[in-house]
Task: structure prediction
Amino acid sequence: MISLFLDTASHNMIVGIYKDTDELYFSIEENNNQLSEKLLPAIKRAFENVDLSLADINRIYVVNGPGSFTGVRIGVAVAKTIAWALKKEIIPISELELMASTDIDEKNKLSMIDAKRGYVYAGIYDKNLNVVMEDTYTALDFVLSQIDQDAVMISDDSFEFETMIPKYNIPQIIEKHKNDLPCNPHSLNPNYLKKTEAEEKRDSSC
Amino acid sequence: MKDTYIFAIESSCDETSASIIKNGSVEIATVVLSQMDIHALYGGVVPEIASRHHIENITMVLEEVFNKAEMAMEDMDAIAVTYGPGLIGSLLIGVQAAKTLAYIYNKPLVPVHHIAGHIYANNLVKPMEFPLIALVVSGGHTELIYMKEDYSFEKIGGTLDDAVGEAYDKVARVLGLPYPGGPMIDKLSLEGKDTYHLPIPLDDNSYNFSFSGLKSAVINLVHNEEQRGNEIRTADLATSFQNRAIEVLTKKTMRAVKEYQVKHLLIAGGVSANKILRNRFQELCLENNIELTVPQMKYCTDNAAMIGAAGYFAYKLGRRADLDLNAKATEILK
Result:
């Protein structure tokens, strides 16, 4: 089983190619507003590097949020176009779960992404990436009141001091989701966890 | 000669569209998924909502056009995509999909300017004959363009403030008409009489336009009448506004046609669907022995068929983009 892994939801653009859970290729680049230009060339480079083509993959894992709305859409647009055109399996992955896939210790992980104005996208996962608290968009104060003292907090700008990049365990993600039922590419969409401001305003005035 | 098939994608505003065009002039199949009803709830296009709908719809639209045409990506010679100008979040979806397909199928990727698309929508009616003048009128554009050959766009004049379609929409809002306001004004003006005194906007010797003064005149008139307790005759005001706007558009365009000695005039963009505008230009062109082309009604609003037509000529001229093509919110027509 050859898998393409894409994450464009956060500060970093990740492109990985895996054979089962073995890493064949991994690249991480800072996502500095040029994601739209950089993603396809990065995917092309990845496949050239391992001497494979997109046709050789069986499955795509794509992070579909939460995170930067535009960033998520760029990754999902590419992933669902590949999955539709080449009839590949496609599996959505939560950015918060990806953040929790760090094997620093046995404790539960609270992943949080700043959603501005005192709000966060947050989810809690145990060491095996089982969901303890579903991903949600909520006030930071509320999340902090919900967690036990023991949980490790991981924010979207966390990184390892040695490598200066976030430490994700993508093989663990793949292992965890290897038996997931693939989505129909047409219905694989971003999971923003938040309505648009226009919709929020409209809802509150109705 | 072998036929050339262009697969085209357009997602610059609130329509997700794909099309297959043969030789720049024959429509094989087109799918347009409009979000107009959704944005009508908000009185105008909400960019983030538009982007969200584009990503949900994109692959379904691509699939449907191939089904309709009974063709496959392998049959295409090139992929054309609108890269700008437009709403950046909307454009990005079409651009990413186009780049992905170009990469997968190893096809040439042809970047198309949205306004070039509107102009080349006319090539789906009949072949463009150069030199020509194109009047581009839409919610974002009011421009007079001189073309001596394919993809030679010399802007000889344009709006200094509001685009004509923008003025239509704002006036419609003041008159309490539902979104989108332009077509409503056009419809109402068929019933109204030109009884309100409004200025002719920027009636000078340049080829430039200005519609904000006319728009403000309507807004002031409505406020004044309301304060005096007078009822607004909506249809009459719509007629009066529309007549002034169209008078200046036709006057300057016909002067350009004469001065540049062209025999062919094109109208392009969303406002080219306006019936009074079409009728007035038809009369004037008949009088002056000028050939007039207006797009079919279905190609006046945003669609990928026009991008396929424009994309064909760009393809023939060797215009290409790499996989690092980015979407551009603003971009000069070139």
Notes: The interface with chain B takes residues 34, 36-41, 43-44, 54, 69-70, 73-74, 76-78, 80-82, 84-86, 185-186, 189-190, 192, 196-199, 202 of chain A (CB under 8 Å). The two ends of chain A are 50 Å apart (CA to CA).
